[in-house]
Amino acid sequence: MMRIYLIAGEPSGDMLGARLMRALKQQMPDIKIYGVGGENMEKEGMHSLFDISDLAIMGLAEVIPSIPKVLRRIKETVQDIERKKPDAVITVDSWSFCARVHKALRKRGVKTRQIHYVAPQVWAWKKGRAKTMYKYIGRLLTLFPNEPKYFTPYHLPTDFVGHPVVESSMIDAKAADFLTKYHIGAEQKVVLLLPGSRHNEVARLLPVFIDTAEILSRKHPELKFVIPTVKTVAGRVKSMLKNLGVQDITVIETQEDRYAAYRAAVMAIAASGTVALELAVINVPHLVCYKVPALTAFLARRIADIKYVNLTNILLDKPIIPELLQDDCNQEKLATVAEELLDDKSALYLKEKQGFVELREALGMGVLKPSEKAAEIILAAVNGAK
Asked: What is the DSSP letter of 13?
């Protein structure tokens, strides 16, 4: 019986991990899977070693106080891997955490196949990282077709498997299901507020989003604001809304409701991240914004080598989606851009809609789903190692 240890350190990786688990079990029904994951991997039968919210940290100012906890989790993970003796350790995204696990395994001489799923964005920053990853993992699986070229010259077998957004269940979700369940009338228009899946993201962005919603509501009383959230930050979102005295915004938590809400939306205001790519694929006009501490922003500007932060803009290499970052991420500017997106005859609205068509063509739809292709490569690699 094959034994796999699967690690995902944050909600986006948890979703990929769950799909990978499903595909692995379909191709090898008696496979045994252990590891670290979130709510979606738990639904697939994972008993996570610890709660991944401990690892959902971003930004220099936030990371430093959390270092002792993260180091403890790395040690616990490595020790658990040594006890389980898996045939392979598969890590998903969260390279900062996962790299330290892989390095520790190599240092301790643990005999197991080591594979990472989702390439670090070396095309944006830390290009030198591509030269050293082979020291810690034996194979890399990427989401975008332009990524293998950064790693294969440096002794690391790398496979493009496709982006999981093309196999998301949101594509088949029904707007009517959401509207009926939450008693939203035909005269109302759903606008999504997506402040992120990390505590520090929510803390910085949610107050701005709420203020933006208030501005828009004065001009557009027909708007119904909805916050789709995830388990890691749902408690914080509800607590912040309560403390701010907000009662007319609906918070939803399940994946089924989140995806149905996406399909029902006429527009979205989102934290920069994978969710924006999901919105683009299903044709929802949106803007993205982000705020980090001043020091983190300063360092990012010095290190990053990119024109855009949004994946749609990056993949198409042109500014399709408005990006309101740092000081531009304020309620007045957000409301102004949102107004344009609510007008289906505006130049911005039409530009986004055309961009979504181009994006879907760029991502493509293969014979195999990305998770199925990833599972196939992993099983072949592990079997080849025996």
From this structure: H
Cα(386)–Cα(382) distance, rounded to whole angstroms? 7
Does the pTM exceed 0.85?
no
| CATH code, 104 | 3.40.50.2000
Burial class (CB in 10 A: 0-12, 13-18, 19+), 269: buried
Rg, the chain, Cα only:
21
Q: DSSP H helical segments within the chain, as ranges? A: 11-27, 39-43, 60-84, 95-107, 148-151, 175-181, 199-219, 231-243, 255-264, 274-281, 294-303, 311-316, 331-342, 347-363, 370-385
How confident is the model over 132-191, as pLDDT tens digits? 999 999 999 999 888 899 999 999 999 999 888 888 888 889 999 999 999 999 899 999
The Cα–Cα gap between 297 and 325 comes to: 10
- Which tokens go with 135? 């020291």
**Which residues touch 64 (CB under 8 Å, ≥6 apart)?**
none
373 and 334 assigned to the same domain: no
Distance CA 161, CA 146 (A): 11
Question: Looking at the structure, do residues 198 and 230 belong to the same domain, yes or no?
Answer: yes
Same domain, 54 and 201: no
Instruction: Give the number of domains in the chain.
Output: 2
Whole domain around residue 298: which residue ranges?
169-363
